[in-house]
């Protein structure tokens, strides 16, 4: 019995290490050498190589002899794509996101709540040469992103406090909100206005506007946003652009069979 438990513990550890390696490779577009992977996962190169070759046999990773780098393989894409297919809301949102890109001229992103942050699930890029790009799959802290603040505005005070306790409120620019009191005030404004604004809080020179997407229960776990240079999404254009984003979000909500309630009544205290 004891040997069985030890064996199971070792199997779980191996799975954890393999998944960690996949995560590290997924975060690096150019791939990583064996030494780099080993350093990132804090494992000996020999152990790292055994895991990589096992993943390679299943096509979850691939090796490029020319660069001596490992990268994510086709099977990882297929598994990830299966998840994307299961999220019907993302698929349904794309046509409306394209319309919003044409109407606003800016890059449109679809974000979903993932634990204590928001993750970009899909993107329709602006046709402008200078445009905002968030890599699909990339995450962002909720207190400094328009989509994150939009979702926070629909949470209870206790839920917001729990996220802030876990993630903190790091400052990234002079505009980043860094205190719970200031954030509560911002969320109240969002609930009254109906859309949220990232006013160069994520990155200087970048402004974003987001609106909520409701599921069938009326809850908000996703948001659509536009992102672009602050000199194009000016403060004077914020209201008009916000209304365009709201139209898109309402359309996705309706197409998904969601039930949108007013922000004021939706905020649960």
UniProtKB/TrEMBL annotation:
Highest taxon of source: Bacteria
Keyword hit for DNA-binding: yes
Keywords, alphabetical: DNA-binding, Transcription, Transcription regulation
Domain HTH iclR-type intervals: 12-74
A Pfam family reported for this protein in Swiss-Prot or TrEMBL: HTH_IclR
PROSITE patterns reported for this sequence: HTH_ICLR (PS51077), ICLR_ED (PS51078)
Domain IclR-ED positions: 75-258
Name recorded for this polypeptide: IclR family acetate operon transcriptional repressor
Organism: Rhizobium paknamense
InterPro entries documented for this protein: GAF-like_dom_sf (IPR029016), HTH_MetabolicPath_Reg (IPR050707), Tscrpt_reg_IclR_C (IPR014757), Tscrpt_reg_IclR_N (IPR005471), WH-like_DNA-bd_sf (IPR036388), WH_DNA-bd_sf (IPR036390)
